[in-house]
Amino acid sequence: MIEMKVAGIALDAGSRNPVILLRDVADRRALPIFISHDQARSIVGALENETAIRPMTHDLFANLIDEWDMVLRRVIIHSLKDNTFYAVMTLAQGEKTKELDARPSDAISIALRLNAPIWVMEEVIADASIPVDREADEAEKQAFHNFLSKISPSDFAQRGKSFSND
Asked: Which residue intervals define the domain BFN in the entry (predicted)?
């Protein structure tokens, strides 16, 4: 799993629908997830530490977790099927832990309110992320090609012998 942070909300240029952007902590990959306008408002409110006059749904859920002495341990975006992301929220109360199925946008909105970490499975990152730092990606790719160009099959045979002698 890869820990992600909310980089912000953007509007898709073509559809004008909001997109939440998650970024890995190394700022190398971004994961865009389309969300509704209501979800976008809720997430922006959490990012800007806004307090509504009356609790909105995500505030209510966060308040419920606090009042019942529970902890949101983490949000995990675990799969992508038919262009739909799936997530779970891991909640704990004392020694008991439960996972609740949740839409990623709801889970992220609540995680922001409770300062809980957001994790994404590597397969989801591989399938749906976009590069943020193309120069670093290209440098890493070039270094790997340089490594491969300097290695020969006999190097593997040598390494295999040293491993078998251990």
From this structure: 1-132
